[in-house]
Amino acid sequence: MTCSLSCAECHAETDVFERRWGAFLTDDEYEPAGVAILCPACAEREFGAPRRRNRSDTE
Ligand SMILES: [Zn+2]
To answer: Which residues contact 22 (CB under 8 A, 6 or more apart)?
Structure first.
């Protein structure tokens, strides 16, 4: 039985659960609130680089 992940943004797939893949809460005006699986690249683009989630710290 395979267990693959598919990125909600770019539809990249992986069959290995890499550490930086993750489930993120989506809650913006364009989409209903829910959980999206995102690859590392999309997660970073959507939510910022890891360990720098505080926007006021980067701008
Ligand atoms: Zn992606």
So the answer is: 37, 38, 43
* pLDDT value at 33 more than 60: yes
Residue 31: predicted pLDDT: 67
Whole-structure pTM value: 0.60
Mean pLDDT of 9-24: 84
Question: Which residues 6+ apart lie within 8 Å of 20 measured at CB?
Answer: 39, 40, 43, 50
Cα 58 to ligand 1 centroid, rounded to whole Å = 23
Around ion ligand 1, residues with a beta carbon closer than 5 Å are 7, 9-10, 12, 39, 42
